[in-house]
Design brief:
Shape: elongated
Helix content: 55-70%
Strand order of the largest sheet: 1-2
Oligomer: single chain
Number of helices: 4
Structural class: mainly alpha
Distance between the termini: 68 Å
Largest sheet: 2 strands, antiparallel
Number of strands: 2
Order of helices and strands: HHHHEE
Length: 93
């Protein structure tokens, strides 16, 4: 038996043990749930910051430690719009 075969068999054995233990059950559901939870937490914090007049998109991105495009997506999904690099209240709200 070569080293590659031994490593492959040991990985297969570890994966089988993990499946029996339920390690892979609902892993995608848990990931999606944590993603939704993180997004809703970001929206909540964004609303609080906008209420306290912190609206510059670059400052918000640095505060959340995410990219400007991601903070724009969060702002749009929270019901805000972006104007001149600032988050502003949407007229429809």
């Amino acid at each position: 038996m070569t080293i590659e075969e031994y490593e492959r068999k040991s990985i297969d054995r570890i994966n089988k043990q993990a499946v029996v233990a339920g390690a892979f059950t609902n892993c995608f559901d848990k990931r999606a749930q944590s993603e939704r939870q993180r997004t809703s937490e970001r929206k909540r914090r964004l609303r609080a910051l906008v209420r306290s007049n912190i609206t510059d998109i670059n400052v918000l991105a640095q505060h959340f430690m995410i990219s400007v495009n991601t903070i724009k997506k969060v702002a749009y999904s929270a019901g805000y719009r972006i104007s001149n690099g600032r988050v502003v209240e949407s007229v429809m709200r």
